[in-house]
Design a protein that fits this description.
The chain has 726 residues and is an alpha/beta fold. It folds into three domains: 23-384, TIM Barrel; 395-658, Rossmann fold; 663-724, Immunoglobulin-like, CATH 2.60.40.1180. Helix content is 27%, strand content 19%. The protein is built from 21 helices and 24 strands. The strands form four sheets. Strands 9, 10, 11, 12, 13, 14, 15, 16, 17 and 18 form a ten-stranded mixed β-sheet that branches. An eight-stranded parallel barrel has the order 1-2-3-4-5-6-7-8, surrounded by five helices. The protein has a three-stranded antiparallel β-sheet with strand order 19-22-23, with no helix packed on it. The chain is globular. It starts with 22 loop residues before the first strand and ends with a strand. The model has no long low-confidence stretch (mean pLDDT 95).
Amino acid sequence: MTDRTEPRMSTPAPITLPACGTFLGTPVYLHRGDTIFQTSGPYYTSWVSEDHDAAWYIDRTVRENQGNLVAIWDGGATQQSLLAMADYLALDELGLEVPRPDWANGRFLTPQDWDEIAKHPERLGAGLVRMLRQARELGLAMMTIYTDADPSQLARMQPDLDNFLGCNVGEVFTFRLNETEDPELALARKTAGDLRQLAANFLASVRSCVQRRKAAGWSRLMVTGGIATLDYEIIGGIEIPAVEDFAVPHFNIASALSRGLHRQFNLPIWGTDLAHEHYGMLPYSCPHRMPLLTASLYMKYMAGCKLLLVESGNWWQQSDHIEDTPMHQVPKLSLGNIHVNDPHLSAPHVEAARRHYPNLNYDSPVCREYRRRISDFYDFLKTRGTPAGQPAARVAAIKGNLDLAGPGGFHPNAVIAGQYDQADKDARWFHAAPERGWEIFADTFYPRPPVLGPFKNPFLSGTPYGITDIVSFAVDPDPSFLAQHYAALLFTGWNTCTEGQYDALVAYVRAGGTLFVSIPHLSTNTRRNFTSYGADELIRGGDFSELCGVKVTGRGKQFYWAVTPGKERPLGVSPHRKFGICMTHLGCIEMQPGVEVVAVEDEQFMPLLLRHRLGRGTVYFLNMWEYPGALADDSAPSATRDNRFGLIHAVYRRIARETRGETFITDDGIEPGAACDHVAFTHFPAQGEICLYNIDFDRPHTIRLHHRETTTTITLAPAEFQMFTP
């Protein structure tokens, strides 16, 4: 078995965008009134406060100006509700009269309560065909999520496939908590401590799912969920990534990965599932809660997202997560397991639940506000349109080979790829220094200042150095692609190096690229040994002479502090500024002539950061045995509260400054600062649009926009979005 992952075999078919350039919509939930929505329990019991068939919601999408897309969302509704299943089978087309639920007597509640349901398995999805035709007649595109259908019904959809974006398989590829019944976790338990095998097993699961769905007749597949393994899901055959934003809180990080994969694998579009109602976190009493929804729409729009789905909130409320939602006042049912939602068990409580529906249903103030904001944004799309293509990204972070945690955020209790039992024996399988490298990257390029009043801000970030992409090295990269799109590449988290990867990096730098890399990024280790590996595990035995100008012979001395000697300020900081406390190890190296020393440990001035010229490009080589994330916390003299001025932060800032191109923002005409931390900025080169958004809901911010030879001072009002072509 090799460390190399085979690339995806086909290029997805293109998608024709709507007239406004962006798909915007909301789900049509098949759940019917008076049922429990998905989960029960003393905290999570959520009642469905509206009772309509799918056609009603599709029609209301147009009437209420809720966009140009509907997403048919089953999610277990057809297994729970007789009405939902009858609608999905379109049994009325057979002349059958579907019985209404009799809640008082517990009759005709579930599909098993009516014999006609079981007689027509071949009609599974017949209602889906009807929904697609209705959507097309109303000028709407359609997709599905958490749905299944008989192949014969999928074949009937063929005449209307131009309006069908595809099937979203949902959150099926993930590693949940240790005691959870989860297929990926069960498979992971069989593989103890080898990233290569874990990745191979995971990829096989994705490809199996894709093959089954394609064989059944689904035309195009999407995925919604997290970002830890999103690149492997795309490699496995998924065609459209649609991250569950808000659940994945850092909007710009999720966009960077989706956009990078879109470019790298030539995907038709990339999307978002905005789970604002469930994971917007702010209480309804906070004046920023609903503006945060609007902010998320603008942030994704300006990031190049062409499929915007607001997950819920506009038709009826679902969530128990928020502290002051009225859902906490409904009857809460303990049925033994939170996944039990049998209507026969909840029927005795329906009358009590109905008393709360006015606070939760279509006419509730919350739902009206969701519809208003979605409608306003759709009006904006119809008026202003959408910039063509994707915004330019001068820098890309590398999601390394066998990085199964990714940029989703460091958490000390999280483990890699479901390896709970392995982590109990070997703590290196918990999130550690490799994962904290992503933290440094995010803090540098996507700072999240406190803009949500007294509440934490995990969502909104400025882009003081412009947006970045995140590209995957799970397959050996194409150096021509890298050179065409990115002036700089930054290693961050875990990487298991391959010969093909090393050769591609050499070619990229020779062609003019800038690269940041450290010793462990060039290790071939697959077992999470990022502390006590040997030089024999390094690619080419540690001979990085061509790429980095050094040969690494082993682990060197441990050190406390780092400094940048000399008055030329190679990282843009004072030569008297110290970095640390490091407590990490240098590498023992043999340097080639001409390699520049940029930073050293402070006692013997042994080299820590080197700069090597190769061809037309530059390599910044961190001569440190540990991953850069080990330096995420900087407590040196002059360290700042926001912890964004450590050594690796300084290197990233220097590279961003050197490669920023002709369109960028600053505070003072020279460097970005506090004002730029509050401004998201993108530039679309296809037609020249520039987008600016002030992520601060309370204060204006003034920045300077530099475009070619012109500098313009711009003040953005609180939460103001601007788009213009210079």
